[in-house]
Amino acid sequence: MEQIRDYRPDTDEAEVSTLLKEFQEHLATVDQEDEIRSFVSDADARRYLDKMVNDSTEMNGKFLVLELDGKLVGFIQGIIDPRNDQSDVMYQTTHNAQIEGWIGLVYVRPEYRGRRFGIKLIEAIKQHFIANGCTTLRLLVARDNTNTVNFYHKYGFTDRDVEMAMPL
Questions:
Q1: Can you give the residue ranges of every domain in the chain?
Q2: How far apart are CA 130 and CA 151, in angstroms?
Q3: Rounded distance, CA 49 to CA 159, Å?
Q4: What residues are paired with 63 via a beta bridge?
Q5: Strand arrangement, sheet containing 136-139
Q6: What is the average per-residue pLDDT within 22-34?
Q7: Helix/strand/coil (H, E, C) string of 80-135?
Q8: CATH level 3 topology of 2-155
Q9: What is the percent of the chain with per-residue pLDDT over 70, rounded to a whole number?
Q10: Is 85's pLDDT higher than 70?
Q11: What are the Cα distances from residue 161, in Å, to 47, 105, 108, 115?
């Protein structure tokens, strides 16, 4: 049986840490610029997980897991940015008011892909964002992660900004 539910630190930490390590390893593998690395230790993955959970809590977000027959096979984390920091004069004077729902990370184990689990995770967090007045759903994805870029395009995301970099 499939279930999308809130992350539970007391019971989910070890499995989600494993998923997070798999995710990071994938990112390191597809990164053609060789900037991203795998976690050095299990402790790194757990510290990263703690940060994701804290960000979700502090920024009115969500951290959801996908459970299938008692096994965690994916997760999604997101936060809400109300864009109401009045000290950000550059943004406030040049942009229309909005509330942005940001997907931080979404991951489904490779052997479970193609079963619409990624879409279901996005839909679940999207409902949280809508319920909290978000006007935009945003995320960042590495250009080199072509399968994921294609997945997001099929879902309806469009390219918005272009981040550029130059090694020094």
A1: 2-155
A2: 22
A3: 28
A4: 77
A5: 2-6, 62-68, 71-81, 100-108, 136-139
A6: 91
A7: EECCCCCCCHHHHCCCCCCCEEEEEEEEECHHHCCCCHHHHHHHHHHHHHHHCCCC
A8: Aminopeptidase (3.40.630)
A9: 98
A10: no
A11: 29, 18, 25, 29
